[in-house]
């Protein structure tokens, strides 16, 4: 590096880093493999915080959810700088390019320095109305309140669902008189 607190981004411009982050990056580089060495893919995706545990990384590899340069890999596959790692995890696909190798799990600020994220943006979260939130001490909801909450949640339509009383229950059933 040209200076202790600066890092060069893809455009060749130096940007300053927090001194704590710069120290953590230096410590991660010192603990990482030497130049020319490799790291296991399950260990790397765990250390850069793409999965929560190393065993989850190994399970994802065994299940075919991890691809390196387009090929399905086993957990012990060697990752090198410049490799493209694709990980399907928690309903989305992460596409990252390896820029730095590390064996130890690092903090989030250091982890983002270890890869370039080319992932598509995550799908938007569904906006759910806060239905069913009641004031503390309001007591048990009445039948009318319950039906209103179910309608807001989308459990029943505006005409009501089965057993809601809409449409009349007289004369419905098996056709036999009730005892």
From TrEMBL:
Keyword RNA-binding attributed: yes
Source domain of life: Bacteria
Start and end residues of each stretch annotated as Disordered: 117-179
PROSITE patterns hit by this protein: S4 (PS50889)
Ranges of residues in domain RNA-binding S4: 39-96
Keywords: RNA-binding
Gly residues composition bias: residue spans: 156-179
UniProt name for this protein: RNA-binding S4 domain-containing protein
